[in-house]
Specification:
86% helix; mainly alpha; 10 helices; single chain; Methane Monooxygenase Hydroxylase, Chain G, domain 1
Length: 290
């Protein structure tokens, strides 16, 4: 810009000297000098912008290089990185147990699954050193325990929360829908650990809740119908309750409940028979004289 200013000044005085014979020679000389300064300023702006963009790009690339995380394959092939990753996973596991959050347990299960998948691929690589194989196998055993722990904890915690939510629902279909979501959580864990007795017990408890809710619903409808004198409708409702009881073979209290419902049905049938017989007797005691 200093050189441009000097050139513009020189051009101004040269043109002023050359145009002395003209009227107001300083006007064209000043315009010419101004054009030189504008061109120089525009060129400086372009150069500065290019330098600034290049500087930003270099900074961004340097930041990416510093913050780029190693791939899972690189972690598994490096003993130090693998040990650091395993320690971080164990710290996250302890934090999830402390907070007892179902979402965190599910996230830890997925992280353990990712770790085990990467470790298995690394063990199949011939480039892995012997000490690395030993460390990976030891890490696999530890992470498998964490994986099982967090999946089972997630399933139990989610099922317990959803079952409690289902108990607060007023309508039957809402109770059943929410309880089925609890069953789905347990089933996901059972597909991986089918022999876990705690999961089996939890699934049975949720299923018994669903059955008891359905049976209680139809028994209540039957009692209302019987109170209003609609005995046939009450019998149909009791039969619906028996149907849901029959579907749940694991319900330990189902036999006792079924026996009570059958007694109620017998009583209602007896009342129906009584209502049918009374008009017939009335007709025989007072025969028609015609």
């Amino acid at each position: 810009m200093t050189a441009a200013a000097a050139a513009a000044a020189a051009l101004f005085f040269v043109l002023w000297w050359m145009l002395q014979a003209e009227e107001s020679p300083w006007v064209p000389a000043g315009l010419a000098a101004s054009v030189v300064m504008l061109v120089a300023a525009f060129a400086r702006l372009l150069v500065a912008r290019r330098v600034r963009n290049q500087h930003r790009r270099l900074n961004h690339e340097g930041h990416d290089h510093r913050t780029r995380r190693p791939t899972l394959n690189q972690v598994m092939h490096s003993t130090s990185r693998h040990a650091s990753t395993l320690r971080a996973l164990q710290r996250q596991s302890a934090a999830a147990d402390e907070k007892d959050s179902a979402d965190m347990h599910r996230e830890l299960y997925e992280l353990c699954t990712e770790y085990l998948s990467g470790a298995q691929k690394a063990l199949q690589s011939p480039a892995l050193q012997a000490d690395g194989r030993v460390a990976l196998r030891a890490g696999q055993e530890r992470v498998r325990e964490l994986q099982r722990h967090h999946l089972l904890t997630w399933a139990r915690s989610s099922a317990r929360s959803l079952t409690h939510e289902a108990q607060q629902r007023a309508r039957l279909y809402e109770k059943v829908e929410t309880a089925n979501r609890a069953l789905d959580c347990i089933d996901q864990a059972l597909r991986i650990y089918p022999a876990d007795q705690d999961l089996i017990t939890s699934a049975q408890a949720v299923q018994e809740f669903i059955t008891s809710s359905q049976v209680a619903h139809w028994v209540e409808l039957a009692e209302r119908a019987a109170f209003k004198g609609h005995f046939r409708r009450a019998i149909d409702c009791y039969r619906d309750a028996l149907y849901y009881l029959g579907r749940d073979k694991s319900n330990s209290a189902g036999d006792e409940t079924a026996a009570r419902i059958l007694r109620e049905i017998d009583m209602l049938r007896a009342r129906l028979d009584t209502e049918t017989v009374v008009p017939d007797r009335g007709g025989s005691d007072f025969p028609d004289n015609h």
